[in-house]
Structure formats: C-alpha cells, structure tokens
Write a structure and sequence with these properties.
539 residues, alpha/beta, eight-stranded mixed β-sheet, 14 helices, 30% helix, elongated
C-alpha cells in the first residue's frame, strides 16, 4: 500500500485531496530487474573506465581518451547522439609521467609520494639536503613571516618539508559503512519538515581570528621557494594507513611553483622525527611531469534515449567523469558514471520507449570547481532569473557523487509533491535497499561542493542520490587508494536498476514532475561578508 501524504503536510495546505498513486509498470520493472541484476555490465564498464582510462584529470590526455571511450561505449549500446560537448578550461593541461623519491640519509629507503598537479619536473634525478618550515596550522601574518625569514637565503638547492607532521591518533572504533535502517526511516519520514535552507558560509575562512587563509599560505610558500631557488617541496599527507591526497597548484602556472610532492604520513613523520634528533636528512627525487598547453578544453560526455512523444523534455542523469590524478577515480566518481551509463543501457536493452528523453551527461572539471556542470547549465538552461528556452524543458536532474555505495533514497530540490512522487516510485525496490525520498529548499549563493548545486543554484529541479557511505569519506575520497578494488559492483548494479525504473517512470508521467513554481522558488541567498585579508610583507 502506497503511503499517502502525512497529516502534518496536509495541514500545511489546510485541506488537500489525497495524491494520486503513481502509475507503475510492473511488467517493465520486472524486465529492468532481470537485465540490471542478472545481465549487469557494470564490472566490465568500470574496468574499462578506471583500470584502462584512469585517472582522468581535466585537460589531460587520459581524460580525453576516457571521454572518447565512454562515448564509443554508449554508441555500442545503441544510445542516441553520443558526443563530447567542449568548453574552455581557461588554462593548459598537465600530466605526471613518473615519480620516484628515495631517502638517502639518515636511512636509505624508497618513499611513498604523489605529485601535486600543475607543478614542474625536476631537472632529471636530483639530490639535496632537507630543510623544514614549521608554523602553526592557521598562522597569524607575523608568525608566518617569522617562519619564512628564518629560512631566507638558506634554501637554494634544498628540499623543504612544509609543516609539522599532523598528529594521527590510533583509531579505537571503525566507521559505519552502511547507513542504519532506523536512521534512514527517520531521515525519510514524510511527516518530518524539510531541512531549512543552508546558510551561506565562507568555507575558506580560518577559525583563528586574524589568521591567514590556507590558500594564501600556499601561494606565498610557493612564491618564496621559487625566489629562494629551492630544489623541491614536500607536503605531509596527514592521513592514516598510507593514504595520500594530492591536489593542484592553484595558479596552474608551472613557473610559480617548484617540484612538489605529497608524502605519506608514515614517511614524512619518520624523517621529521629523525631531524628532531639532530640528524641530517637527504633525499633523491626524479619527477617527470608534462605540460599540455594545447589542451585547453574540457569535455562533457552526453548520450540519450530520445523521447517518443515529447523529445524536447528531458530527464537528465549526471555524474562527473574527471578525477584527481592519484588513484584511478573509481569511487569518485567512476562508479557513479558507470551507474548512470548502465541505467540507460538497461532501458535500451529491455526495449523501453520513454515519452520524454532520458539523457546522461558525464561532466568534466568537477574537481577543479564544478566547471563542466556550470558550462553545461550556462549553455543549455541559463537560470530561473535569466532562462534560456530549454530551461522549462528539464523535467529533473539526478546527480550521483557519493562514492560507490548503493542508493538508499533521494533528496529533491523541489516541493513536497516531488518527494511524494519519488517515494512512490521507490516502493517497488524496497527489497534492494531503497527507503524513501525527501525534499529541500537548499539554494546556495553559488555552486559549491557538487554538480547538483550548479543546477539548484540555477533554480532547476535537482535530485541527489543518497548512498551508503562505505569507505568513501574516510578512505577513498580523493586519495591514492581510490581504485576499482574499493567498488562493490553489486551496489552499482542495484543503483542502476532502481534508477532505470525511476527515470523511465518520470519520463512517462502524464503530468510533468512537480517543481518549484516561479513564486515558490527560493531566492538566491546573499553571499557571506568577505573576511578582511590580513596583511603580510613576506615576498
């Protein structure tokens, strides 16, 4: 029995008729289950995308190859219009070809590192003594200036360890890899009011009053090391169990940084402690990076099943194809890409004929600031305040970017009626772990943290997949162990199976999927007041 709207929600509108139960094609759902669970292609697709075409850093040769492979794969399944939609990245590309770092003294051993993107190569194999830069985690300008001045004129030809090793206490408890059923039932309880709009916050602001922002500290250290002619920079990974996260030189200008690696905490801490004993440390580095000045475009990959009656109206399925360069981008966000691709493959395989178009779009540039999704929305939809003709044609956008755990529910940026529709469409898949749906009014002042916010910021109907976390936040997110080994393919298969049904039924509804009206759409909140920049004379 499908649960009607709760009394508390009905009370919000005083008197309202019971909502019509969603029409569900049980025969098609059975075929979707058979294809998605018994004839799944997710393991094969994941292998091709991540083992063969990973990692997929934006504006790198490997990303372009992955995008072309993905379009070819979907063309082979019989999907319509598989193509790459280009957009301008704003700078040239980069890739790492080789990195080898060894300790020469006070011990001899290979060291585990990852290269920071958009930093230069070493001049062949280089050797140098190690110096250390130590300052508080959120330094005041005078503290930072003092730390740099102590090294002024002393770094030419040396390798700098940047920052005291992060303390990593032994964990006495493990994270919960799957969401608890009781918590999910509470979270998706339709009688609960929607979460309040998220307040605009300045995420880059330091907690310590008067402290420098982290990005300014990074930039000034790079400038200082270039001016001092340092040989290389080494950062502490600050993570447990040998994990490493390595991001990028934010200027994307290789001349504004020295060769830079992130070293696993176990190696970094060992060297630091031995230097505390008064021992001299020496390292050997061989880093070979490649700039790609001609690779200035990003590429969103699209393909679809064209609607039979209203092809101009679109149900959009999204994930991001790009990844960082350390692992192979399997949980972030390869598994999601595979799930959305598999969703369309299933529908094509069972002969589904949706009335509206169901399209997959795999974004580039998410990791560099949601660049691909912003380019896509700008080109196709505009915003509620400045709409393009296609703005009113988007039925719903589904975004998956929460690791490789299975779908447990949906969260819609839209009215209560939107979550009611989704809730009913998920009922047939309760046995596969689907619990329910909620709605929210979270329109942010600007796109932030995931591609779904690009759509909700524009006022478009956006739906996020809520997934089991598994090892994502604690272990694989942006790390060197983000590989196929961390993906349970049965979770991806279940998600794709559920999404195939949900997407089809939304595309086949007699009425459009409920979305905010112009009058009810939350306004764009104001940006937080900027934090005044502390001044420093360090150059």
């Amino acid at each position: 029995m499908i649960r009607p709207l709760s009394l508390s929600l009905l009370a919000l509108t005083l008197v309202a008729p019971a909502p019509a139960q969603e029409a569900v094609d049980a025969a098609l759902n059975a075929r979707i289950r058979q294809e998605g669970l018994q004839h799944s292609q997710v393991a094969k697709t994941l292998h091709g995308l991540c083992d063969l075409h990973g990692p997929r850093l934006t504006a790198s040769p490997t990303f372009k190859a992955a995008a072309e492979w993905t379009a070819t794969q979907m063309r082979g399944w019989g999907l319509t219009n598989p193509s790459l939609e280009p957009w301008e990245v704003g700078h040239g590309g980069w890739s790492n070809q080789h990195v080898a770092v060894h300790a020469l003294a006070p011990f001899a051993s290979p060291l585990h590192t990852e290269v920071v993107a958009w930093t230069p190569s070493t001049a062949g194999t280089v050797r140098g003594s190690v110096a250390r830069l130590d300052f508080p985690e959120e330094p005041l300008p005078e503290e930072f200036e003092t730390a740099l001045k102590q090294l002024d004129g002393k770094l030419k030809g040396k390798i700098l360890l940047v920052g005291h090793p992060k303390a990593l206490p032994v964990l006495l408890s493990r994270y919960a890899p799957r969401l608890e059923e009781t918590e999910l039932q509470k979270r998706f309880d339709p009688t609960q009011p929607p979460a309040p709009p998220r307040l605009a916050v300045d995420r880059g602001a330091p907690k310590r009053p008067g402290a420098l922002r982290a990005r300014d500290v990074e930039r000034r250290i790079d400038e200082f090391l270039v001016a001092q002619k340092a040989l290389a920079r080494v950062n502490d990974a600050g993570m447990r169990n040998g994990m490493i996260r390595a991001f990028n030189n934010r200027t994307f200008d290789l001349a504004k940084a020295v060769p830079t690696v992130v070293m696993r905490a176990e190696d970094y801490g060992r060297i630091w402690r031995l230097m505390d004993d008064g021992l001299e440390a020496k390292l050997e580095l061989d880093i070979r990076n490649q700039a790609h000045p001609a690779l200035t475009k990003g590429y969103n990959v699209v393909a679809e099943i064209t609607g039979s009656e209203k092809p101009e109206e679109v149900v959009l399925l999204g994930a991001h194809l790009d990844s960082w360069h350390t692992g192979t981008g399997a949980t972030d966000d390869g598994a999601s890409c595979v799930s959305m691709m598999e969703t369309l493959r299933i529908l094509k395989a069972v002969g589904a004929k949706p009335k509206r178009t169901i399209r997959v779009v795999l974004f580039d540039g998410e990791e560099l600031g949601l660049l691909g999704s912003q380019a896509y929305v700008k080109a196709h939809f505009g915003s509620a305040e400045n709409p393009l003709p296609e703005f009113g044609k988007l039925v719903a956008f589904f975004n998956m970017d929460g690791g490789s755990g299975q779908l447990r529910g949906l969260s819609a940026f839209g009215p209560a009626a939107a979550s009611q529709v989704l809730r009913e469409l998920l009922v047939p898949f309760k046995d596969l772990g689907a619990v329910g749906a909620i709605h929210n009014r979270m329109r942010l002042p600007k796109p932030d943290y995931a591609d779904i916010t690009t759509f909700s910021h524009a006022g478009l109907p956006a739906i996020g997949l809520i997934q089991d976390g598994l090892e994502y936040s604690d272990y694989t997110w942006h790390t060197s162990v983000d590989t196929v080994e961390r993906v349970p393919v049965e979770d991806i298969a279940r998600t794709a199976t559920i999404m195939a049904s949900v997407a089809y039924h939304l595309a086949n509804r007699n009425e459009r999927f409920p979305a905010f009206s112009k009058d009810d759409l939350p306004p764009i909140p104001a940006m937080p007041m900027p934090v005044s920049e502390p001044k420093t004379t360090v150059k």
